[in-house]
Specification:
This protein is an alpha+beta fold.
């Protein structure tokens, strides 16, 4: 049985790899599925990707997912809900409800295969190309039957590969890589989850799903690479113009072939789990012979990114910057995508739900028709504005040598109860090496929302953030800090700052100059939480011309 599952799962993956999804000049994409697709997280990322990655094409996406739906029900509403859009491409993510939430048996597979074949037949009858998408795994630690249902989903995923091969339909296997990633991440971080309720993915889980779906689309896999030397060159369709080399760096104009995909903050932990940027989205800047001091990258007059000499030598990705113009455009595009989806959903679903329950009389009332028509008109009319917002442009770039050390992440300890004893000593201060540290990205302002980092509102607790700096020789390092609430700074085992306060987080509320020793120095930042907001802000700068690196 294990051999059969492995062989059939391999067939699903092979089918996906052999049939990349091609995006035509005019493409109407429909997403069906259950309530996971209906959240519009991975479909929303897909819609943003289509607009940004293919700015010269006319694409539109309609999310017609239905909560609780199984594949066996989808074909029955195709004519009513889907066919009127005349889709050229349909993504069909089913399976989660088809396994009947219990142990696998042959009858489940037989029904699943039959429903998939019928759904493909109905879709293709309208000249719609079909992409089959496997279900996501559940969290076995948060379900009463533990991993039993994942074994059922593994069978269904293997069966999906059979159907894809038989009917020459591409298959995107989400289940197999996500189950493996879930197992590996849980082994490193006990209690971690893709699915807080045991089933539905968090935004992080949706980013992982989007990663595997976007990989299957035929198109450019990175924005490009910019190389700094005596001149400036670029790959990937990037155009460079008006280059100036000066004593502390470079100035030039850069025209992009398309915008990087903006990733919402709530999903960004997923960037640490899958190589989303490296494989799909990077806009790399690298220098042939940089000095070791830090650099600041400014775009259209706004500081977008910091980089150490080592970073810029190896190459630093400037795509994930909220302050860059494409970050601003991306945030606005994401907002429009979600607003459009909500308006459209609220116009068609309540009335089709009534129709689903045979309330025909109410369906014929003039008000319901007008509501549906208004929602559809709004959703259609906003698409040209989204396409315009997704257009790339020409940007003025300046890369200047500074003493700033780019702090893009911290290592977080677990949470510890806090009884109000601010001067009390907690485990990380006694033995930092014994703590299960986990890396957490900071945003472009150097902030981390600690409530979000630990999955929701926290009260009466404390957490440590660890930073390790390596200095080429003894020197001074300045930290600009902020915290919500109290803050302790411990440098190489010695407390150097103590703020027992209640406040909101604002970088620069506290400043401390540290005397670094040659080699590695450890800084612990303890943040105490009462209630409400819970956060930390960090910025670092070398005082003088010494070389200091952040140890990652």
């Amino acid at each position: 049985m294990l051999f059969r599952l492995a062989a059939l799962s391999a067939a699903a993956i092979a089918c996906s790899a052999a049939e990349p999804i091609k995006i035509g000049q005019k493409e109407v994409v429909v997403v069906m599925g259950d309530w996971i697709a209906e959240t519009n997280w991975w479909p929303g990322l897909l819609e943003c990707y289509l607009h940004t990655r293919f700015p010269g094409k006319e694409t539109e996406l309609w999310n017609l997912a239905w909560p609780g739906e199984a594949a066996a029900d989808a074909d029955k509403r195709w004519g009513r809900d889907v066919a009127p859009y005349r889709p050229s491409l349909a993504l069909l993510p089913y399976g989660l409800n088809d396994g009947r939430w219990g142990a696998w048996n042959q009858k489940i597979s037989d029904a699943w295969l039959k429903s998939q074949r019928e759904l493909i037949r109905v879709a293709r009858s309208g000249q719609t190309r079909v992409v089959l998408v496997s279900p996501n795994p559940i969290d076995p630690d948060r379900r009463h039957n533990q991993d039993v249902y994942n074994d059922t989903l593994a069978h269904l995923t293997a069966d999906l590969g059979l159907v894809g091969t038989e009917l020459k339909a591409p298959v995107i296997d989400l289940f197999t890589p996500m189950r493996k990633l879930q197992s590996e991440t849980k082994a490193r971080t006990p209690g971690w989850t893709f699915a807080p309720d045991g089933v539905g993915p968090s935004p992080v889980g949706h980013l992982v799903m989007a990663y595997h779906i976007l990989q299957a689309i035929e198109g450019p896999k990175e924005v490009g690479v910019i190389t700094l030397g005596e001149g400036v060159t670029a790959t990937g369709g990037i155009t460079i113009d008006k280059v100036e080399r000066h004593l502390t760096g470079w100035r030039f104009e850069m025209t992009l072939p398309f915008l990087p995909l903006w990733v919402p903050e709530a999903a960004r932990e997923g960037l640490e789990l899958v190589p989303f940027q490296q494989d799909l989205n990077r806009l790399m800047v690298k220098a042939e012979k940089p000095e070791q001091l830090g650099y600041t990258i400014t775009i259209d007059g706004k500081e977008a990114k910091g980089a150490s000499g080592d970073d810029i030598s190896a190459g630093i990705d400037i795509a994930p910057s909220d302050r860059a113009p494409w970050g601003v455009q991306g945030r606005q595009l994401w907002g429009l995508v979600q607003r459009r989806f909500a308006k459209h959903r609220d116009s068609w679903r309540p009335w089709t739900w009534m129709d689903h329950h045979e309330d025909k009389a109410l369906m014929q009332e003039g008000a319901s028709v007008k509501v549906r028509e208004a929602g559809a008109t709004f959703a259609k009319d906003i698409i040209p504005y989204m396409r315009k917002l997704a257009k790339p442009g020409t940007y003025k770039v300046e890369i200047t040598r500074t003493g700033v050390i780019p702090v893009d992440a911290v290592e977080l300890s677990p949470l510890y109860p806090y009884s109000g004893d601010f001067e009390g000593v907690l485990p990380p201060e006694k033995d930092a090496a014994s703590v299960a540290w986990r890396r957490r990205l900071l945003d472009d302002e150097g902030l981390v929302d600690l409530n979000r980092a630990f999955g929701g509102q926290q009260i009466q607790c404390a957490v440590f953030a660890r930073l390790r700096f390596k200095a080429d020789k003894a020197c001074k390092l300045r930290l600009d800090l902020g915290s919500d609430d109290g803050l302790l700074v411990i440098h190489n085992g010695k407390r150097v700052l103590s703020r027992n306060v209640g406040r909101g987080v604002k970088r620069g509320d506290d400043r401390v100059d540290l005397s670094l020793t040659e080699g590695e120095n450890t800084v612990l930042l303890r943040v105490n939480q009462g209630a409400g907001g819970f956060g930390l802000a960090v910025a670092a700068k070398v005082i003088g011309d010494n070389t200091v690196r952040l140890v990652r």
